[in-house]
Amino acid sequence: MFKQLAGFFSSDMAIDLGTANTLVYIPGRGIVINEPSVVAVLDDFSDNRKILAVGHKAKEMIGKTPDHIVAIRPIKDGVIADFATTEAMLKYFIEKAHNRRSLVRPRIVICIPSGVTDVERRAVEESALSAGAREVYLVEEPIAAAIGADMPIMDPSGNMIVDIGGGTTEVAILSLNGIVYSKSVRVAGDKMDETIINYIKKKYSLLIGERTAEKVKLEIGEAYPSAEIREMEIKGRDLIRGVPRTIKINSQEIREALQEPIRAIIDAVKTSLEKTPPELSSDIHDRGIVLTGGGALLTNLDILINKETGLPVQKADDPLCCVVLGSGKILDQFDKYKELLINYRQTE
């Protein structure tokens, strides 16, 4: 009786629990939430920290809070780093997606990186169950991204996807509804931001914050030279004099700063190509590589990968939303895709 009642109040949802952003999809409604994976808490040095803000409002607090308020990013490198805060964040997003209906106990599909351990998988599952989910299903991010990008992964042919998120880059060769080979590297958007911060610090003795670094990456970051050199002004704290200072930087400098993380991503792509069975290699040679995730938006990254591999490279139509859209398709056509789910668990 209780399970029937729970099912009556439930509504299926797919969650892309990303290092940088969390997206929520509900069948029939589409993407209802797309917010930063950030939680601001009142730190009273106890286990029961008070949640002050989640998502956009919490991200605005990063680097601007007094000592007793902490802005936390509970997902690190694609996995849960802070269980309690992740649970609170998930609970907030679940309730927000269902208009604050506290009785809702949904069936949830959550995406996880392909390289996570069993312990990390269980942490995601337990966090969702504790946040109020009735059933939890896990699907690997490359599979969800490929479905979201409308790649024919059910065919007996090779498909290569490179999903560049905030914490991890997932490279996978897919065929017949499964992953033939995958490589997950914990180098992605966050690492790019970090290298920009370190580059500015070393070259200009100027300390900038995470949000400024992200803005620089989005506005003038590039992986391969463009026809035009773009410039922008940034503000930070002078490390020598300790006062605010403004400098002007250009896209050529940021391209130089991003060389290390971009090289790690390209090496992962090349390694995957080397490990691909010959029959599938010929398919990939014809079909090329599909880029998804926020990192796919880095200017000229597709051109650089094309130069390095000699293969055609294209960005998905909606790189940022491919993972959650693919998870949503799994919910919409559950019987068709259920074999792709890693596990199933139902609460007592």
Short account of what is shown:
The protein has 13 helices and 19 strands. With 348 residues, it is α+β, with helices and mostly antiparallel strands.
Number of β-strand runs: 19
Order of strands across the widest beta sheet? Answer: 3-2-1-9-10-19
Q: What oligomeric state do these chains adopt?
A: single chain
Strand content: 25-35%
Number of structurally distinct domains: 4
Instruction: Please report the first level of CATH classification, the CATH class of the largest domain.
Output: Alpha Beta
Radius of gyration: 21 Å
* Secondary-structure arrangement, i.e. CATH architecture of the largest domain: 2-Layer Sandwich
SS element count, helices = 13
Q: Describe the biggest sheet?
A: 6 strands, mixed
Shape: flat
How widely separated are the two ends? 12 Å
CATH superfamily of the largest domain: ATPase, nucleotide binding domain
Kindly report the CATH topology of the largest domain.
Answer: Nucleotidyltransferase, domain 5
Low-confidence stretches: 1-10, 344-348
Mean pLDDT: 89
Would you tell me the structural class of the helices and strands? alpha+beta
Helix content: 25-40%
